[in-house]
Amino acid sequence: MKKSLFLLLTLIISPIVYGYDDYFITSENPITKIENKTPNIISVKEVTTLMNDRNIIIIEIKKEGNGIFNLTSNGKQSEIKITIKDNKVKISPSDYNYYTLDKAPGVFELDPPPINIPKKKEEKQTGKITSPEQVGEEK
């Protein structure tokens, strides 16, 4: 009974939890302050890279509604509004670059490798000393 109830709840809750894509925003300048005004609708997290650029944030969408957060970059404060309705997300204004985390940016093909690859000459190493300069003078 417990297993079937758990399975039923998992199937009901799964489309709600995984219904929205997460987004990340990049900025040309470091982001100094993030203030989330609607934490029940969206979650905003700062990402610190290896180079400590501090110019990337991740937006996790929790449910439908209107989300607002303030972003301070280069001394300029911007209010970013996110509208989530019918599994569609609209982010405004477009001063920053927005990308989705859950979808690939596009399909691209790699160039095929060259057909004629030149082979290196293999050098045999015998382990014998060929000249006295390698070890010192022989007597």
**Classification by helices and strands:** mainly beta
**Total of DSSP H or I helical runs spanning 4+ residues:** 1
Intertermini distance:
91 Å
Low-confidence stretches: 14-18
Strand residue content? 35-45%
Strand element count:
8
Major β-sheet profile = 4 strands, antiparallel
Radius of gyration: 28 Å
Helical content stands at 10-25%
Mean pLDDT: 75
Order of helices and strands: HEEEEEEEE
Output the strand order for the largest sheet. 3-4-1-8
Shape: flat
Descriptive tags:
single chain; 139 residues; mainly beta; four-stranded antiparallel beta sheet; 1 helix; flat
Task: Give an overview of the whole structure.
- Strand 3 and strand 4 form a beta hairpin.
- The protein is flat, with a radius of gyration of 28 Å.
- The chain has 139 residues and is mainly beta.
- The protein has a domain at 20-100.
- The termini are far apart.
- The chain has one helix spanning 2-17, and strands spanning 23-26, 31-36, 42-47, 56-61, 65-73, 76-85, 88-92, 97-100.
- It has one helix and eight strands, in the order αββββββββ.
- The strands form two sheets. It has a four-stranded antiparallel beta sheet with strand order 3-4-1-8, with no helix packed on it.
